[in-house]
From TrEMBL:
Record-annotated membrane-spanning stretches: 85-105
Keyword Nucleotide-binding included in the entry's annotation: no
GO cellular component, one term: cytosol
Name of protein: Glutamine amidotransferase
Superkingdom, natural source: Bacteria
Single GO MF annotation: transferase activity
Native species: Zavarzinia compransoris
InterPro entries assigned: ChyE-like (IPR044992), Class_I_gatase-like (IPR029062), GATASE (IPR017926)
Keywords: Glutamine amidotransferase, Membrane, Transferase, Transmembrane, Transmembrane helix
Ranges of residues in domain Glutamine amidotransferase: 21-182
Keyword Acetylation part of the UniProt annotation: no
Pfam families registered for this protein in UniProt: GATase
Length: 235
């Protein structure tokens, strides 16, 4: 019987990206549920070998206008309490932080573009170690406090909590390690309003930078996912 991965997706073009190939190479069967469409409250939070929660443009604190976020947080809280393998990217990391009891709120400024993160001592000993000196794609406006029991793995000058781990099975990553460079145009189109409202940001420059650093980022991102699966005992 194959291992299973449940993916919670909030936006069609913010998909698994490079993570899909890593999972398929390890024999995972992948099932995608759409937040806000599929009934997450009806899912068994402990059933799958790994759960991956992807990004999206809504805020965790906007559950008054996006009530499905409450079901997601409850699902993730049960997953965390069960100690099962869990990965969150961007909004996914924020949702994990909220499910673990931490506050999520707007950051002091948007962080969009390619830049490296600074790894902590724990980060150098984590699945993120391969990211030392590698440019990664930042694309967020919100941030979060470090949950109790979590260990900070990476920071930037703008965002203190760029990545965290809870034990060996739970990993939250604020930046986007999953993006394939050949798919960046979907992001540039889909997030046009946000990009246009971000002072000093050039879409042509972001596109060119993606071409320049994308291949190295893909190789490093795949290594992070492989190492995270290894650490969670899913070799």
């Amino acid at each position: 019987m194959s291992r299973t991965c449940l993916v919670v997706r909030h936006l069609a073009f913010e998909d698994l990206g490079l993570i899909e190939a890593v999972l398929l190479a390890r024999g995972f069967a992948i099932r995608v549920v759409e937040a806000g469409i599929d009934d997450i409250a009806a899912l068994d939070p402990l059933a799958d070998d790994v759960v991956i929660v992807l990004g999206g443009p809504v805020g965790v604190y906007e559950d008054d206008v996006y009530p499905f976020l409450r079901d997601e947080i409850a699902f993730l809280r049960a997953r965390i309490e069960g100690g099962r393998a869990l990965l969150g990217i961007c909004l996914g990391a924020q949702l994990i932080a909220a499910a673990a009891g931490a506050a999520v709120y707007p950051g002091r400024e948007k962080e969009i573009g390619w830049a490296p993160v600074t790894l902590t001592t724990a980060g150098h000993a984590s699945p993120l170690a391969v990211l030392d000196g590698v440019d990664v794609l930042h694309w967020h406006g919100d941030t979060f406090d470090l949950p109790d029991g979590a260990v900070r793995l990476a920071s930037t000058g703008i965002t203190l909590n760029q990545a965290f781990a809870i034990g060996n099975n739970i990993l939250g990553i604020q930046f986007h390690i999953e993006v394939l460079p050949e798919q960046i145009e979907r992001w540039l189109i889909g997030h046009r309003a946000e990009l246009g409202a971000t002072r000093g940001l050039s879409i042509p420059a972001l596109r060119a930078e993606t071409r320049r650093v994308g291949p190295a980022a893909v190789a490093a991102g795949a290594a992070v996912i492989a190492a995270a699966l290894d650490r969670a005992g899913l070799k």
